[in-house]
Each structure stands twice: as structure tokens, then as C-alpha cells.
Amino acid sequence: DSGVTQTPKHLITATGQRVTLRCSPRSGDLSVYWYQQSLDQGLQFLIQYYNGEERAKGNILERFSAQQFPDLHSELNLSSLELGDSALYFCASSVTGSMNTEAFFGQGTRLTVV
Amino acid sequence: AQTVTQSQPEMSVQEAETVTLSCTYDTSESDYYLFWYKQPPSRQMILVIRQEAYKQQNATENRFSVNFQKAAKSFSLKISDSQLGDAAMYFCAYRSLYNNNDMRFGAGTRLTVKP
Closest residue of A to B41, CA-based? Predict the structure, then answer.
């Protein structure tokens, strides 16, 4: 168990809909990363938050948005969903600053858009 | 932005033999961290090994070791005495110390272990 919790584990929804994915980082971790992994593909970096503020943006579509709340949990909002948005969405957290360690990953949310 | 390249989409190894997975990266930074992650069919991302760029000594973790060539920006993973449980996707990752600790992954290498 990595200590990072993602909910829900599975989500099936229709095209055009909006969903919210939730991530609770490890206790004490201030940084949260979101990644998208399409079928048998690599990890695409979407966005990073640090202590409530957006720190870096990757290949995140305008239809997608995220935020990190004061309790450090994060949500990824996906709207106007398309079939191509079907993927595994990972959240990872880490300690930042001088204590650089690996990112710890949640088990992912598998999103299926039908 | 830093990029990570894994040029081998798939690799295969016989059980008990050794295999090397390649990874190269592009950066202008002098200090950074490199990682290899394993993703088995369960899809959980598991850290295999890490390397700090300022350390010349190659990291080792039991049957896993790296060949870190900083000048060549190369970071290969060697798996010795391969086991069936090593079958997975392997991702190479680069973590910046400066750019908001941004972490970038390669496309992955699918490793098959033959009994």
C-alpha cells in the first residue's frame, strides 16, 4: 500500500458527461501529480499541484481541470467526455523541496467512456 | 522540458537470464533523480530503483542494477536472474530538482519472461 488513495477505482460514463476523480495523498506529502495512461501506453503528465497551488502543467486538455484543497486532497475534473478519454488516471504524491524522493502512486481510476 | 525516451517497446528474456532495458533522457540540468518503475498487470506503479545524478556509483537493488552514464544521458536497467514475476511494463522516469520537481516518464518497455 503506497498510502495514496484514489476513488473511485472504476468509472463508466457516457460521452458528453462530466466526472470527478479524487486523490488523497500520503500523509505529509504536499505535491500531487496527475497522469493519464491510455491502453498499453506510457504515462502522460497532466498537472501538478503543490500545497494548493498549480505548479506545472503538462498535456492537459482544456476540458480537464484540477484543484488541490486545503486538506491537500486533489480532484481531477473531466468534462464533455469523449471516447478517447477512456484511460487509467493515476494520482501520485511526493515530498518536495530538498527531500527529493520518488513519487508514490495510487492504484488509479479506470475511466471508461461509452 | 525534459524528455525521457525508451526505445524498446517490448523485450523478452528467458527465465534465469539477464536482460537490459534502455532509457535515455534529455536535460540541461546538472542535478536530478532517475527512477525505474515497474507496472505489473495489476497496474500498480512500483518503484524498482532510483539513482541520484550526483552519485557516480550505479545503484543496485538485489537483482536490479542500473548503468548510469551521465555524459551520455543514459540510464539502463539490468535485471539479473530474471523471474516470471518480473514480467511487467517498465517505465523510466526523470525528476527535476528545480522545475517544480516535475517528473516525466518514458513510454515504457513491456518485458516478457519466458519459462
Answer: A40
